[in-house]
Amino acid sequence: MVKVGIVGGTGYTGVELLRLLALHEEAEVVAITSRAESGRRVDDLYPNLRGHYELAFSEPDVRQLAACDIVFFATPHNVAMNLVPELLQAGARVIDLSADYRIRDPQLWSRWYGEPHASPEVLRAAVYGLPEVNRSSIAGATLVACPGCYPTSVQLGLIPLLARQVVDPMHLIASSASGVSGAGRQAKVDNLLSEVADSFKAYAVTGHRHLPEIEQGLSDVAGSPVALTFVPHLLPMIRGIHSTLFARRVDTSVDLQALYEDWYADEPFVDVLPEGMYPQTRTVKGANRCQISLQVPQGRDTVVVMSTIDNLVKGASGQAIQNMNIMLGLPEDMGLKQVGLLP
Amino acid sequence: MVKVGIVGGTGYTGVELLRLLALHEEAEVVAITSRAESGRRVDDLYPNLRGHYELAFSEPDVRQLAACDIVFFATPHNVAMNLVPELLQAGARVIDLSADYRIRDPQLWSRWYGEPHASPEVLRAAVYGLPEVNRSSIAGATLVACPGCYPTSVQLGLIPLLARQVVDPMHLIASSASGVSGAGRQAKVDNLLSEVADSFKAYAVTGHRHLPEIEQGLSDVAGSPVALTFVPHLLPMIRGIHSTLFARRVDTSVDLQALYEDWYADEPFVDVLPEGMYPQTRTVKGANRCQISLQVPQGRDTVVVMSTIDNLVKGASGQAIQNMNIMLGLPEDMGLKQVGLLP
Amino acid sequence: MVKVGIVGGTGYTGVELLRLLALHEEAEVVAITSRAESGRRVDDLYPNLRGHYELAFSEPDVRQLAACDIVFFATPHNVAMNLVPELLQAGARVIDLSADYRIRDPQLWSRWYGEPHASPEVLRAAVYGLPEVNRSSIAGATLVACPGCYPTSVQLGLIPLLARQVVDPMHLIASSASGVSGAGRQAKVDNLLSEVADSFKAYAVTGHRHLPEIEQGLSDVAGSPVALTFVPHLLPMIRGIHSTLFARRVDTSVDLQALYEDWYADEPFVDVLPEGMYPQTRTVKGANRCQISLQVPQGRDTVVVMSTIDNLVKGASGQAIQNMNIMLGLPEDMGLKQVGLLP
Amino acid sequence: MVKVGIVGGTGYTGVELLRLLALHEEAEVVAITSRAESGRRVDDLYPNLRGHYELAFSEPDVRQLAACDIVFFATPHNVAMNLVPELLQAGARVIDLSADYRIRDPQLWSRWYGEPHASPEVLRAAVYGLPEVNRSSIAGATLVACPGCYPTSVQLGLIPLLARQVVDPMHLIASSASGVSGAGRQAKVDNLLSEVADSFKAYAVTGHRHLPEIEQGLSDVAGSPVALTFVPHLLPMIRGIHSTLFARRVDTSVDLQALYEDWYADEPFVDVLPEGMYPQTRTVKGANRCQISLQVPQGRDTVVVMSTIDNLVKGASGQAIQNMNIMLGLPEDMGLKQVGLLP
């Protein structure tokens, strides 16, 4: 059995790691840390785990974590970048679900996160954990930076168009919508049910922190700079991201449906829907899956791509486990066969 | 008191007309028709109306309706176009909340609604009931075609940009999202709570019936053809439309915030928000109001406009009453002063 | 115009007072206090109020408040009991929406609220503001303690049974369910959308603070002690309380439907539904109304009463305004004619 | 592999069987019938199943079904009772999720379902499929009648009290609340999102069809007649049942917490929570589990039990698979280890 440690396990990506790993045939969670909840059983905080874990939260302990085969960071940004260097030196392999190692350029990171990066030397060694792009680098990595939730849905939706250069890369548009769990489990008035139920709004229109991450990933694929107008919205529900993507076609000779089906033919967790079927967040709820469809309305020159994921699974904890499987040479879908919970 | 008749009052726009007219100082509903519910009290079907109405649904009766000062059609499309000619001849003034008289070209209507238009001669006389564009024509009209819900939010959001020709009119994008009440009160599996709660999806991506209506209205304002990529989405909630609009700036010399504030300065029901405040559907819930804000992310050449309405109020019954007030020379906001229900 | 002051206006009962008073023909809000938001416009915090108020929050100022005809306290418990004595001395009339003056016995209050009562001498002068019981005392009161939300729905549902002594008063059961807005606008993890959406649970089963208030009110009506098993539940929605009440009949000779209809025949805001129609929280959403129905299943000896209110209206701010109208000799329904927002 | 057939697979219990069986190590669905959707792939109707099934719906065919090891009926009532006799004769073993074989007395069945029972002779052979009561009979049964959703939650909550005779069996009260998926996937106005979102109501107060089923089951356990006042309510969400149960203690010498913990100590799917922790529907969402807690408020004589299940899992398809495992001698929890989806 693979020994797994989780740093910062009280948030939603933490409990989601526990939910998924409970059924993973080869992984066993041996440590989960939380300063605030140290000593409390995980199934006392999250009663859905009763019967699945005997584990309690503990104070972070480098030696204990270093003894794990894999350590997940399910922390807010600014935690991993301070602890990871020591863990790497102690020989651990780390999968960071936070934003700390997603952006290669520490100055760019700094500009968006408002503080200097604490471990730029490690930053350079981190592999961006989008398996559909970086599978082979992930396999050998000691530090994997799991993509953000929006970046996963937007990149998977746009990659074929940019890689094949069939659209104008400088005028991409993403109108994305996320469930509230993306905002985490912090006590904030803004995320009270009474504030966000029964309503819909855009936010962070001037610039969301996921923007530079998306542009970095898409530029890599396009081989040239890209510019994205990214407008995230908040949905009155818990889980799910739906990205509606717009791009101007510059090459109309390509059969886009065939392009997407071919591009993702061998991907276990990207599902290109048949023409005319559109994705819904509910069909991927609880599942490690991205469903994508596309359309060119009225046969004009704008292509519309729709892409859905569960932000806590393919957008976070599921993708992290997918990366773990790749790093450890396990079957990539081990522990990740859950069917979406519908209805 | 103004005598009001309502044809087809069992749907959501019907009950919303009743809700709003219950507090209208000068209007009295004297007849409300429904073949299916004939004889049943309106407050038996809609118990929120108890204590406000003694009225029962009745079979449609042209003489009774013609005796009204104003007749609202709160019917599905294909009803008004068959009954309105007779009512107009009998001297009634009609406000149609359905799609029958919104599109000037009967062949275009036909193409989108899949049947010939039943009264093209009357179609020509209909005034499109968006007061912010056609107020003076509405005042003298005998037949007003109330705009659709999406068209209201999209047009109010884009009009200043197109009228002042600061954006490319041939590549407009609308990513709109609506509560489920927009689909009406028909018994359809697709609109069951278990099908649409907790989920989000795009629909009608190849072409929604509101598209030609929006393009017609925006072309009038722009003075030239426009092309819109329009993607509607379904929100897991009852009321509210949020449109996120994208346009490419061709003239960057204009102060867009000032443009919008000036354009709508005298409009009682269009509220341009201060810079940095974004609209939410909840702040207009139950109110006859459109809230708008705009932003140019990263100072690039794409402008983003956000526009919200309550689809049943400013997107339907509230706008219809606004039109009635204009037609009858009443204060335009009479009966329409409700404050949005927040939280 | 009546001059109104509001202490602690940033919470949900505060914004609800503003929503309702915006359309009140005789009242004008001249001051609204908040230490935290002092200087901020109310419509900046609550954009649904844009166009209805020019007011900003201000620091509490006894002289300014004392100059008002009516001062509402929309504060958490433990605020009013410290400030009200001074205001009363300065000649103000006060309506307290918090729990501070609801329980006559200061020691009982102390036991449930965990601290000594700060102004027991004033407590004795307070009138419990349930108009259906205390209308005439309210008219002459200088201090009115508005009932809690659960207590309003439970008492209105049980009063006729207890007053007429047709049920066993020592084995009453209330299974109540409330929307999350009842928990207020505090930043608590427990009330995040991600914690309470899509779920249902009982809470405070060992004893909710509203229990002694309910038992006090029902004892008064019954003329003898009562004992209630009260289990509150949290609904995954914003507004509304539904109480399902169970009582054992000791006198089966009474026609219960007739009893309820007669009892509330003259009450403007209590609506006894016809036999076979059950209340829903949506039919009273946004309205100052309690809808009640009852049933004796299988003709056995247990009577079931269902009672619904909007917790923020008849359960708080609407009832407070109803009390204000009574105190000032205004028509009791002034400003309270809103129709429930359905759908 | 066990060959499984499903009759009537287009409803919510059908898709839930498919979701759960997709990960069952020993079962393979070889046939799923639907007259309406015959020929359509199951993953076209339910895209969450894409990648998990190649199966299409087919016309019901007795020979094909009889060749299965187990046939599930996921049909409305009145279907199974007509088809099951033939299947049993052909040698199939049947698990009926509908109401047709739950009530032993065909005349009682008839009174509640409004028509004669079509196969009373088979009715007598059916075993009521509540494993916590009938495990050994289920093991040898050819026909198992799966309990209804409410009956599962109410019975599991009350059984220890009645079996140990610590409460008055003639005055039981169940105030239950269910998500809307319990009403199935029929096109009914009453279950539209716009009708039931954001609201809460009681229904079927005069008598719900699950009442005789519950009373039959509880009488068996009590060894004497029982009388239950059962009030179901509709929750504005998809999945989950919460039953709040009230009973009058006649024997106060029993430690109720210990009684429950002992009673269910060996049950894999009944989880008695520690004192002071209350169940929530979200902690069992998607999981085959019943969570129970109890309390005696104010130390009076009324005991309150809270019991939650996912109506589609432990209340339907999960319990059906649990029965299948028992019938086939498989580990009882095979394919049923899913962790509740929280948040």
From TrEMBL, chains A, B, C, D:
It comes from Pseudohalioglobus lutimaris. Catalyzes the NADPH-dependent reduction of N-acetyl-5-glutamyl phosphate to yield N-acetyl-L-glutamate 5-semialdehyde. The gene is argC. It catalyses: N-acetyl-L-glutamate 5-semialdehyde + phosphate + NADP(+) = N-acetyl-L-glutamyl 5-phosphate + NADPH + H(+). Belongs to the NAGSA dehydrogenase family. Type 1 subfamily. InterPro entries: AGPR (IPR050085), AGPR_AS (IPR023013), AGPR_dimerisation_dom (IPR058924), AGPR_type-1 (IPR000706), NAD(P)-bd_dom_sf (IPR036291), Semialdehyde_DH_NAD-bd (IPR000534). GO terms for cellular component: cytoplasm. Gene3D superfamilies: Dihydrodipicolinate Reductase, domain 2 (3.30.360.10), NAD(P)-binding Rossmann-like Domain (3.40.50.720). GO terms for biological process: L-arginine biosynthetic process. This is N-acetyl-gamma-glutamyl-phosphate reductase. It is found in: Cytoplasm. Pathway: Amino-acid biosynthesis; L-arginine biosynthesis; N(2)-acetyl-L-ornithine from L-glutamate: step 3/4.
